[in-house]
Design brief:
alpha+beta; four-stranded antiparallel sheet; about 290 residues; binds zinc ion
């Protein structure tokens, strides 16, 4: 079979779409130690989802970007709400590799494909996939207009807007993994949420300056406290994903709910100190303010 990255015929490895360190963190920090995917909420996902995608040398190439990202960004960002994290050139490579894999997964493997893409989205997807592939192989110096934007998430301190925050927001922010493509007339992006990190792989944007402070630089940069801006349409989109995740929780079968309840009772201390309890607590607090 052909490797999706270098295009040579080779024995393909089952590659993670969302990196395995995200699932490892979830196993160690959520109350019940596992999570579920939107496409099949009744299935426990212990180790993420994998597809046969890469030859062994391309798998190694992408792993080399994952290791520093996990160590320098992902784990420190999940330890506390105050963070100022420096990155080097591996950050953009990592971000592109995740957006590229998410997009390939959504195009070829997702069970719930949703409505077909409009023509301009399809054209952008094809162009982005090819440019990202070349960038990952070192054949392009940057991903051009198909930029990567990273939004780190933390506890919401206050919120002003004409709508209320969704009830489930911190549980979604802290504990969910979510992969999707979103589009409207003005912009389209591939969306990969990895617990407290939302990564947007930009496909097109007719008003690119509406977003501020999230772009991942090619060489070096800082992820930390600064003013960041996304448009109202993107905020509404994130809220729609929160509601979707809440619905998924509710759609669990009774048998599954009973199983979760039993596994939760096994270790009360683990639950009380878990990220799940913290997220519940924050959701209760933020709702009582509004
Ligand atoms: Zn390869």
């Amino acid at each position: 079979m052909r490797c999706a990255l270098c295009h040579t015929d080779s024995h393909l490895i089952e590659s993670h779409i969302v990196p395995s360190f995200v699932f490892k963190w979830l196993r160690e920090n959520s109350a019940t130690g596992f999570m579920r995917m939107r496409t099949n909420p009744n299935l426990r996902i212990q180790d993420g989802f994998k597809i046969p995608l890469l030859c062994s040398s391309c798998e190694k190439l992408l792993n080399a970007f994952e290791t520093p990202f996990a160590r320098e960004i992902f784990y420190p960002l999940h330890k506390e709400d105050k963070f100022r994290l420096k990155y080097r050139d591996w950050c953009l490579k990592f971000a592109v590799s995740v957006s590229w894999r998410s997009l390939l997964y959504l195009l070829n493997y997702a069970e719930d494909n949703g409505p077909p893409f409009p023509e301009e989205v399809s054209a952008s997807i094809n162009a982005a996939l090819e440019l990202w592939r070349k960038f990952l192989l070192g054949k392009k110096r940057n991903p051009g207009k198909f930029e990567q934007h990273l939004l780190p998430l933390a506890q919401i301190q206050s919120f002003t807007g004409d709508k209320n925050l969704p009830d489930f927001i911190h549980r979604y922010f802290f504990l969910s993994v979510d992969v999707d493509v979103a589009w409207n007339e003005e912009r389209a992006f591939v969306y990969t949420k990895m617990c407290r990190i939302i990564l947007f792989g930009r496909l097109y944007d007719v008003k690119p300056k509406m977003w501020k402070g999230l772009k991942v630089s090619a060489n070096r940069g800082i992820i930390g406290p600064k003013t960041m801006k996304i448009g109202q349409d993107t905020l509404n989109y994130i809220f729609s994903r929160v509601k979707n995740a809440a619905l998924m929780e509710n759609s669990l079968s009774e048998v599954q709910k009973e199983k979760i309840h039993k596994s939760s009772q096994k270790d009360i201390n683990r639950i009380l100190s878990s990220e799940t309890m913290r997220a519940w607590d924050y959701d209760n607090k933020i709702n009582s303010k509004h």
